[in-house]
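Q: What changes when iron/sulfur cluster is included in the input?
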Amino acid sequence: MPNDSTSVNINSGGVAQNTFDAIVIGSGISGGWAAKELCEKGLKTLVLERGRDVQHKKDYPTTLLNPWEMKHRGGRTKAMVEENPIASKCYAYDEATEHFFIKDKHHPYIQEKPFDWIRGYQVGGKSLIWARQTQRWSRFEFEAPARDGFAIDWPIRYDDLAPWYSYVEKFAGISGNKDGLETLPDGEFLPPWEMNCPEKHIQSKIHSKFPGRTVIQGRCAHLTQPNPVHLEQGRGQCQARNICYRGCPFGGYFSSNSSTLPWAANTGNLTIRPHAVVHSIIYDEQKQKAVGVRVIDANTHEATEYFAKIIFVNAACLNSNLILLNSTSNRFPNGLGNDNGLMGKYIAFHDYRGNITAGIEGFDDIEEYGRRPTAAMMPNFRNVRKQEMDFLRGYMVHYSCSRVNWHNSDGAEGIGEGFKDFASLPGGWGVFMMMQGETIPQEKNHVRLSKDQKDEWGVPLLITSVDYGENDNKILKDFLEQGVAMLEAAGCKNINPFDNGRVPGNDIHEMGGVRMGNDPKTSLLNKWNQLHHCSNVFVTDGASMVSTGTQNPSLTYMALTARAANHAVEELKKGNL
Ligand SMILES: Cc1cc2nc3c(=O)[nH]c(=O)nc-3n(C[C@H](O)[C@H](O)[C@H](O)COP(=O)(O)OP(=O)(O)OC[C@H]3O[C@@H](n4cnc5c(N)ncnc54)[C@H](O)[C@@H]3O)c2cc1C
Ligand code: SF4
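A: The predicted holo structure follows.
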């Protein structure tokens, strides 16, 4: 069905009743931030969320369960894997968390090339199940595409975003050290977690034998020491349980449910409508702007329209692409704002294929207590200041050391007393190292809409056509070689580098398709995340990214969203939207 307002003939529920100042599509990490900012600035804001409601604390059914209180001890059964072959490939999916992941069979898409699309459809989106690793971009990531000649130039630089990083960090609560690195700028940190002894040992060996490479403690969205603004949100200190994916009753980590959404609700300006599948955005040819959103009720399939002066699209990268591509009208037959035909193209992601396991001796007299929710990490050291390798860009390295779990080690056989005695002893120390590689946005890596297949809500199925390239293979090879060299230098034993064979998507850092840029011929959004050709629509999730950097992306989405929302309010006040 065409989506221009002239052709609308469905339940509008009374235009006045369904009219708000702002609509936000999606209630995850970025949508939560849009809602908070817009509500705080006094805008009556409607958040449309396709999934069910999830109330902080009340709807975390497994958060206090011990393994023995769950039928399968919190594990993953064959039936779960068979029923959810894609979602169950995510490491965080298990008996204690499966309710925060979609059921694959209800949400089909077409994989032209293998792509594991991991989704959490509920109020809070993936903010409930993310791993909370948060690093700022540096100036090098924003400058890279123009300098190295790929993608297009970012329309903003680090200095444009730095104040907004500070703004979101203070509210969300980010723990970390002030490391003074140009490649990974410091933020507004709460106290850091501490590395354990073998991690520090590896760190010191890398520092002494590999000049220019710096290992730091991971920065993450956990309240190691809450500030008044966190207590005001009703959140408390993190207890180092590291079972956060179940939802945290302490609000120890940042999620939309514990932080931005209740804050927005407290203003009295927020309305959240769960079970609201956004079908498309309605464009008014006369007004030459978007006037509202068409929604299909997830349960009844009834169509409703909601209206607002500004619309924030925060459905997570690929769903934001889908909604915009499906928002067709006479003016925009190929998708809202898609005059250049580039919407859905230049999808990029992070390459997580490289893993290394090893053992490390000499620390068997050391025990560790509690469970830290982060690990040691090393910012990218390849091609930072100039192009120096035979590949573009580089990779971040994460590593952690822990006592090897008894059930993974040799000798854990048999039953009875001997087995129990064995199981109660800690094993030796093991090392796990992984890469987070930048991928280069390429036009051929794209998503598009199926012309003949739709889901049960009448929305065309998304076709994913995204793959690794030669550059990614070179980066993978370099990481495996360098990782082995660094672990050898630290005296590790039984070093085992491997390609884990993950397909794109499983990184859950998909980006692009509606990229920012200064030139409307080569980009979809301007430097404020507004569609060039429909300026009252803002896209501030991963879809807006020009390139991926090597950093975990969500902190950047938060900063972009807060910046864009404040700009939107200023423009509204000036009468420009
Ligand atoms: C296991 C795991 C670990 C991760 N670890 C990290 C990490 O350590 N660091 C990091 O930076 N990132 C991490 N991520 C990624 C992070 O979760 C995402 O980057 C982030 O959630 C993206 O925010 P978003 O607002 O774009 O999307 P989401 O948080 O996914 O929210 C999108 C929302 O939009 C809703 N929606 C979608 N389509 C529609 C529609 N048509 N109509 C209405 N609503 C719709 C969805 O239901 C969802 O609630 C991880 C993700 C997972 C799953
Ligand atoms: S580790 Fe911290 S954030 Fe995670 S569940 Fe425990 S208290 Fe909550």
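Observations recorded in class: Confidence is low (pLDDT under 50) at residues 1-9.
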